[in-house]
């Protein structure tokens, strides 16, 4: 077995997933899933609810370890990493949680400073400058002294974004970053994602449903359903590839390969109407 | 048949929980050197579970001492032995009531809040966020709370005992007229420093503190990330801690006496 720490990274692909198979509670979430996330690009992962998009991010970060398949990040096979190696890798990854996950005991400033305080011995002046720079980038420098309970959902997400980029990571994973943002904040976050990518050569992976927003920011889109990648391509052409998956997903149709209704017994029978009754 | 299977499941689940709790303790102990980096967090938790519990511990200690002094006075009066009330109050408080009642109060006051806090951190992804920031939540969240409980319990138990004896003195000497000198001299003559104070108050309460903190942290850390899950975990902390305190009390008394 190759040493996961000294594995040679692929120059063009930062995250390489091969044959990932995940079964949760008897349900197959991923069925031999293959995916490549290119370095320095913004990749969006889309798909119907419950299709395993967040689970995929958990595999990339090692929060969840698949028994079958390979998830390589910067050449390191995540499922094989020891805890210390995994933590070393995570120091180079930023993660934006769906619900922000701010530490409720700390104010905004301390939330953003938390990773710096835990992993560096930087002088207080430098920590302050870095934190204020990141907060300025997300437009919340003035909210540095507020507690998480005093923030709106959108503001909390922007603080979480500032915390995620505080180490200038090589990879940022955004789990539903646009939910709850007003149009101004949404536009700013889109610009920020793009700017971070271009200026710091950060690789971004977005899990989102907002196609209009994704079109503005993503270089590549993966559409996953039924445990597999069913379509992929650039934002301009993916919706026109003609497959029933993309037609249904981007058209918002109830009928198609993704059932809108959860499997259930006959509706008429459930309502008490016997078949054939007048 | 199904009832028997149900009972077996409950027994197996309980054993599995105890086993998981034991493994969790090993993880906490292994993370204590790393948690020394977060000494400030341990001090903060010590303030929260220790200093913030002082009012309830002092109040309850006083009332336990008052009622014990009153009950013992009337029982001892039957035999003409009211002069022994000081030593009996002290022995009852040092040997049993002090550590056990402090433990039960500590489980209700501090244990539940530890479970609820960690449970909510779990439910709101704060624990996952720490892991994603490469911060070990066992070292940052669990170990400081465990250590705080371990340190706070003996101190709180000493305060409880002091207030209990003060209550016994208040009733016996100030109210019912037991001689002050006899009260104290009988107490100092009959209370053994090693057996009654060090073994019963300090060691016993430290053991209770460790068990309560472990149960509280374990329940919070492993709770289902829902409001219902946090509620159940909090209840389980009180129930399991109370049973553990009383069972451990018997075992420790048998060994320490």
UniProtKB/TrEMBL annotation, chain A:
GO terms (molecular function) for this protein are:
ATP binding
Q: Quote the Gene3D superfamilies the UniProt record gives.
A: P-loop containing nucleotide triphosphate hydrolases
Q: Fetch the Pfam families from UniProt.
A: ABC_tran
**Which SMART domains does the record match to this protein?**
AAA
Q: Which domain of life is it from?
A: Bacteria
Cite the ABC transporter domain residue spans from the record: 15-251
Q: Does the keyword Oxidoreductase apply?
A: no
Q: Which UniProt keywords apply?
A: ATP-binding, Nucleotide-binding, Transport
Protein name, as recorded: ATP-binding cassette domain-containing protein
From TrEMBL, chain B:
Residue stretches spanning the membrane: 12-30, 46-66, 72-94, 155-177, 197-218, 230-256
Q: Which domain of life is it from?
A: Bacteria
The keyword RNA-binding is annotated on this UniProt entry: no
Keyword set for this entry? Cell inner membrane, Cell membrane, Membrane, Transmembrane, Transmembrane helix, Transport
Q: Which InterPro entries match?
A: ABC_MlaE_roteobac, MlaE_Permease, Permease_MalE
How does the record classify its membrane topology? Multi-pass membrane protein
Q: What is said about its interaction partners and assembly?
A: The complex is composed of two ATP-binding proteins (MlaF), two transmembrane proteins (MlaE), two cytoplasmic solute-binding proteins (MlaB) and six periplasmic solute-binding proteins (MlaD).
Q: Which family does it belong to?
A: Belongs to the MlaE permease family.
Q: What is this protein called?
A: Intermembrane phospholipid transport system permease protein MlaE
